[in-house]
TrEMBL record:
Pfam families: PHP. Signal peptide: none annotated. SUPFAM superfamilies: DNA polymerase beta, N-terminal domain-like, PHP domain-like. NCBIfam families: PRK07945.1 (NF005928). One of its GO terms (cellular component) is cytosol. GO terms for molecular function: phosphoric ester hydrolase activity; zinc ion binding. The lineage of its organism: unclassified sequences, metagenomes, ecological metagenomes. This is Unannotated protein. Residues 106-185 form the Polymerase/histidinol phosphatase N-terminal domain.
Amino acid sequence: MVTLTCVTPVEALERVVHCLDRANEIGFKTKAFVRALDVVRSTPAEQIADRAAHGTLTELDGIGESSATVIMQALAGESAYLDTLEQRTRVPITPDGQRYRDALRGDCHLHSRWSDGGATIEAMARTAHSLGHDYIVLTDHSARLTIAHGLQRDRVLAQLDDVVVLNQRLAPFRILTGIEVDILEDGSLDLDDDMLGQLDVVVASVHSKLRMDHDRMTERMVAAVRSPHVDILGHCTGRLIGKRPESSFDIDRVFAACVDNRTAVELNCRPERLDPPRAMLDRAIALGCHFSISSDAHAIGQLEWQLFGCDRAAERGVPIERIINTWSADDLLAWTHTH
Ligand SMILES: [Zn+2]
Ligand SMILES: [Zn+2]
């Protein structure tokens, strides 16, 4: 539970954005609150207080009625708007799922503004910390995904410098470096080996030619899983529930390759993905795979979506000791460095 006493207007607006994120409300209203947050951050606090006192907040470009209400309530020590929103957007979880959630110590797949995420690295890290995590793995997209502003080699290097600075500020919380690297059509990866080798954790995912024929898709995925740099196979079927079918591949061959090469299978928690599907997850458990339960968050509130994956893991009986983000950051790094 979040205690809502003595929050500043910035904190209150951040919490509104968090709640709208976790409810997957990505429309105009959320964008308006994000804009209001930017405005309040860049306006002197005295001016905000003065305008609140005189009822002129909405004269500021980017502040609408709802955001003005949130700001005024925060300044008055009230939280009616936020309380209602907190209740309405709470992410549900079963008691069995909660047992898995309590075991998690980090999140191995999330995006920042460096690619197609909506929040800064720092905001993602601070939110993960507030959710009880010890670490995150930062996995922005690789260059091939131009629509998502994927990172070229020089931007990966620049991001590594940023993470060093952030880690000094946020310690003992840790941001582990990483990438969600595209698995290209021939199974090669969308970043140089020497770059991949510098990153703490590499998630590899298929984002293109998802309807490739069964045999070629199998070869493509097995080749990626075999890469010594790949630690986690991201959202393996590529399905979007109700919108896009699963890719077709030889499940046993791909998961056996994951076991042989110590590549974890991601349990992607996004509600529209929940990938792998139940029967496939059962097979991965039976074959002895390791797993990550990862939010694939593109916004701060979406970090709470790990709850969906925890419920699914509990339902199918994923052995907790095989979930790599129940381990400490050091144990996780020791494991990724073994291959
Ligand atoms: Zn992806
Ligand atoms: Zn992703």
